[in-house]
Structures are given as C-alpha cells and as structure tokens.
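Give me structure tokens for this 429-residue protein.
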Amino acid sequence: MAKKIQDPDLGYSILLPYVNWHTRRAYRRFEVHGKENLPREGGMIFGANHSNTLMDALVLLSADNVRKVFIARGDIFKKPTIAKLLTFCRILPIFRMRNGVAAVRQNDDSLNKAVDVIHDSVNLYLFPEGTHRTKHSLMRMGKGLFHIALDANRKFGDKKPVYIIPTAIEYGDYFRFRSTAMINFGKPINVTEFLKNTNESNEAVEINQLKETLSNEIAKLFTYIPDDEDYDAIWEIVKMKNEKRAGSLYKKMLRNRETVNRVLKYKEEQPEKARNLFERVISFTKNRKEQKISVMSVAKKYPLLNSMWKFLVLLLGLPYYLASAVVNLPTWLTTYFIRKNLKDPAFGNTVSFAVRLVLSPLIFIVGTILAFCFMPWEWATVVTVLLFFSYSVFVDYNELFRRWLSDLRWTFKKNLRKQYQSLNLNTLF
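Here you go.
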C-alpha cells in the first residue's frame, strides 16, 4: 500500500521540533488563542489569512503538536527536487488556470489526497486567498478549500462532520525579524449541518455562501481594515493609538479593532472631516518616515526620558552585542545580502528564518567545541550559554538601537510633534 502524505515519517518527526523551535524564536512574542473553539472530533479544514509568505505556514505549523498537511500553489512544485522536498514537508499542490490546463488536471489527485487527509483526522491547512498580501485585510477567496469541504462531506459526512475552522494570523510587523505573531482560531463552520439545512441544490451557490461566511469569520479574529481606499490612513491611526500600549497580543488586537470601528464610524458620520483627517495623517506619516522616526516614538509623553533608559540598556549590553555580531557574522551578513536583492520584501522574514535555521546550529556547535578546547570548563559553559542566545540578542539590540535613535529624533522635532498633536487623535478616538 502506497504511503500517504499524512502518514507518520521518522525524518519529518525528528526535524519538526527543531523547525518549530526556530519558528517561535523568530518572534519576540508568540501567542496562540482560540484552541477551545476546535471540535474534539470530525474532519477539520483550516482556512487562514495569508499575509507573510512562508512564515504563515511555519507559524501555523508551530501552533501545536497536532499532525498537519498544507496545500500550496502548484507552480512552486515545477522542479522535481523541490516537489520531493515539499511533499516531505507534507505540502500538497493545487494549480490555477494561469498554470495551464494540463497543470489544472492534476488538481483531482491533490483534492482526493486532501479529502483523505481529513478523513484520517489530520488537520488540513489552506490559504484561500491564494496569494499573500502584507495588509490587515482579506482578498477574494478561491474555491479550492470549499470544493474539498463539499467532497469530504459527500464521502464521509454521514459518519463524521466536516468543519471549516476560521483562522487568523496577526503580526506586529511584516518586514522586521523577531517582531510578534499571534494565531487566533475562530468558531468552526459545520459544513455538514450547513448542507443539511440549506435549501440550495446548486453547488456554486453553496460555495459562495461558505466563502462569505468564512471571510466574515476570519475578519473577526484579527485587526481587520475593510476599507482599501483609506487603508493606509486608518492603519496609521491604529498604530499611533495603540502601538506603545502594553498587554497581551490578543488584548492589543482587540484595542486595534475598537479603534478601527471608531474611525470607520467617524468616517460614516462625518465624511468630509474624515477625508481631511486622513490626508493630514498621510502627510504626517510621510514626514515621520522621511525623518526616520518610528511610530513607537510617536505619542510618547516623555520621549527624552524613554531614550535615556534605552541608552543605559544599550551601554550595558554593548560588549555582549559586539561579541554576538562577530560570532554571528556569517548569519547576518548572508541574510543582509539576500534580503537586499529580494524583489518582494515580504519574503524578508522567510529569508531571515531560513538562514538562521541553517547556520545557527553550525555556529553554535563550532563555538562550543572551540570554547571547551581552549577554556576551563566553567568559562566554556558560560560562553556556550551566551552563544545560545547571541543571535536573538544581536537582532533585538539592533531594534532597540533603532528605537533609541527614533526617540532622540522625535524629542528634537518640535514641528513634527506639533503636526502630530494637531491630529487630535486621542480626543477623536
């Protein structure tokens, strides 16, 4: 009997904990919410928003230790070696018309395998938008996920229910390595019950209804901004209001959503004033970015005081940082040159993750061996511990340095601070 993609595999089982561990270390904070919403039995298809290339799949993979299979766009399976690697990683291809009619014909095999995955109670993950976009919004969904759900229900829905699980991923930043990541699972959509209770007999209509339901449910799970026309202005207002406030990532998301709702209400009730405000927000944002001031510095009551404690931390951590920079030179230099030449900056974090995944263990092993060869074991042990955390410290130090400079610039940019105060965001929202 041929081995199924979802079957246990020794090599995969050995590598998975290592990959998941590195995925979580790629973020300063990592939270998973909504697990209580997941059904205890039945076939589950997870439909998630797609905003940060391969990192989306890696983040979902590391959410828990449950077996998973993913579906990705078929064009990345063109080369046989890559196809074998992706299959080893439990990824199935799905092709679109742009890939050609011959390629689309292969979808039947993938869809049958996907239904079999669900039948075996292995979680199936898809990104129904079909492509990534670094925005807190959703694009039009494709039909693949819903075809799988309907096929699964036809084949075994009478024995166990089929569910679509709305899933949202929210990042603190799409482009900066070691930002934050939050996964939020929503209440399941019971496809079996939906089909029993619907009066429709047209599959296309059923799929459209499920698409609308899933899109609406995912939109409830993260900072969703529906208005593409004023997206940039609204998102800037949200960041200026909430970026610096403490609390869990989930609570921050709730505050973000509340701010979005207030801004949209203001726009609806006072469209002319809202239009004027959005124009001034965009103007301020342009000036802020030109002067290299982080949104984290904006709205701080005492920016100079903030810059002082950051300077103290930077001063105390400087020796460790310099040592970390030297030791990890192959990692960060390789990452820098690859990211510099990327056509799509959204792949930046994927590159940072991949380079660290490959080079970090080599640097750690070589460094540890050298330490124990040339130092007393007590000192070698200390060096090994410091080496273990060195790359994270290197990246976080750079981020703290960036914010320190930003606080300093913000302190002495009186005209820019006046421009921010004139927005009157705290009063309006």
